[in-house]
Amino acid sequence: MFHFDSKWCDGTRNDGADPGGSLGGLTGLKTGKMSKKEKLYNDLKHRILTLDLEPGANLDETRLGEEYALSRTPVRDILRQLAGEGYLIIEENRGAFVAPMSHKTLRDFFLTAPPVYASIAALAVDNWKPAQLAALKEAQEGFRKGIEASDVDQMAFYNNRFHLIMGEMADNQYLWPSLQRLLIDHARIGQTFYSPRNESLSERLSEACDHHDLFIAAIENRDRETARRLAFDHWELSRDSIEMFVRPDPLDMDITQLKAV
Questions:
Q1: Three-point CA angle 148, 46, 179, nearest 5°
Q2: pLDDT band at residue 100 under the 50/70/90 scheme
Q3: Residue 59: beta bridge partners?
Q4: Which residue has the higher pLDDT, 50 or 257?
Q5: CB 172 within 8 A of CB 131
Q6: Quick one: 223 and 121 in the same domain?
Q7: Residue 58 pLDDT > 50, yes or no?
Q8: Which of 98, 127, 159 delimits the end of a domain?
Q9: Residue range 186-203, pLDDT digits in tens
Q10: Residue 78 lies in a domain
Q11: Does residue 137 lie in a domain region?
Q12: What is the pLDDT of residues 29-44, one digit of tens each?
C-alpha cells in the first residue's frame, strides 16, 4: 500500500494560500519538517482524493484538532482553505463536509473536462520552465511505480500531481481554478480506472502511462498541436472507466427467486 508522504505536495501555487508556503511553486518537494497545520492540510487532501473520506462526509473540527494537536482556529483556517479550493463545502451552523458528487456535478464534469485539459496542455507547451519539467518527470516516475506495484492510492496521487504540474506550466489564472476543481473529482471518480478488473482495462492503464511520456516529449519539444491532441486522446482513454463509477453493472441476481423472511 502506498503511504502518503506529507513532504510531497500537490503542485498548488505558492500564492499565500498554502499553509507555510510549503509548495515552493515549482518542484512541489517539501524539505524539512512539516508543521501540524501543513500535515492536516495535506492529509485531508489525500484522504479526499482517494475516497478515504467519501463525498458528503462530515468533518469534526474537535476530533481533527485533537488528532493533530491543533486549536480550533487553525483547524478552521485549513477547512476554509480546502473549501475555497473545492475539496469541501462549509454550511452555516452545520460545519464542513467533503464536496459531494451530485448528478449536476458529474454532468458538468463530463462537459467541461475535455476542453479545459486540452487548453492546459497547449498552454503548458508555451510557458513551461525547466524546474517544472523536472517535477513533471518525477511525478511520472511515481505514477509508473504505482502501476508496477498495483497501488491504487499511488497511481491516483501521482496522476493528480502530474496534471496539476501541467496546470502550473500553463500559467493561466482563469483555467487554473477550473483545473484544480476538475482534478479533485477526476481523482475520486477515476478510482475504477486505477483498479482494472480485466486485461482490457489493464492495457488502458498502461497506455495512460505512455500518454504521460508523450505529454512530456511534446512539452519538451514545444509541440503544441501534439499536446492538445494528446489531451483529448487521454480523456477518451479514461472516460469509459470513469463512466463505470457513475453507471456500475447491475447486481447479478434474480429478485423473483428471493425467499421472504
A1: 90
A2: very high
A3: 96
A4: 50
A5: no
A6: yes
A7: yes
A8: 98
A9: 888 877 666 656 676 678
A10: yes
A11: yes
A12: 343 478 999 999 999 9
Q: Are residues 46 and 92 in the same domain?
A: yes
Domain annotation covers residue 6: no
Q: For residue 176, is pLDDT > 90?
A: yes
Mean pLDDT, residues 135-151 taken together = 95
Q: Tell me: do 108 and 216 sit in the same domain.
A: yes
Query: Global pTM?
Result: 0.76
Q: How many CA atoms lie within 13 A of 223 on its CB side?
A: 12
Rounded Cα distance, 209 and 155, in Å: 10
| Domain extent for 226 | 103-246
Phi, psi dihedrals of residue 185, rounded to the nearest 5°: -75, -30
Is residue 11, in this structure, part of any structural domain at all? no
pLDDT digits (tens, 9 = 90+) for 12-25: 333 333 333 333 33
pLDDT at 1: 41
Domain boundary among 40, 73, 98: 98
What pLDDT is stored for residue 19 in this prediction? 32
Same domain, 25 and 93: yes
State the total domains in the chain. Answer: 2
